[in-house]
Amino acid sequence: MRPLLLLCPRSSVVVMDIHTDITAKAEQLRLALRAKLGVHGRDFEVAVKRTGRLLPARLRKQAAIIVKAQGLGGHPKLMRQIDMAAINKAHFEISAFLDTIDPNDRRRTRILRMVGGIVFNMILVVVFFVIWLAWSGTL
What we know:
This protein has two domains: 1-101, Four Helix Bundle (Hemerythrin (Met), subunit A) (Up-down Bundle), CATH 1.20.120; 102-139. It is rod-shaped and about 85 Å long. 69% of the residues lie in helices and 0% in strands. By secondary structure, it is an all-alpha fold. The relative contact order is 0.11.
């Protein structure tokens, strides 16, 4: 059974449950970042750093709220600073954004852009080769 550490004798909010909830949400988001964006990290903080511009700035700020709360580490007095409504909102917004991402579509788009670049370069080489042949008089 988990120890119950209360914020104050009159409070019904349990610090360990808050910390467990924050850790669970951070882990869920870390796994979603891995599944949807292909970002690997040993914890949520590293995963958010590695996402870079894949997450919009607004969502990076939301993720920073969760990282900060997770960094307090279940310390009873520091956990009083946590706004669970803000953490729940951040979790919801990041999850909603990640739910709209289709990993197969991202993979397909990345491959098509790469192939398009290669084809464009090949067309340029052929055009310059034809121009060179015409200029040298062999065409």
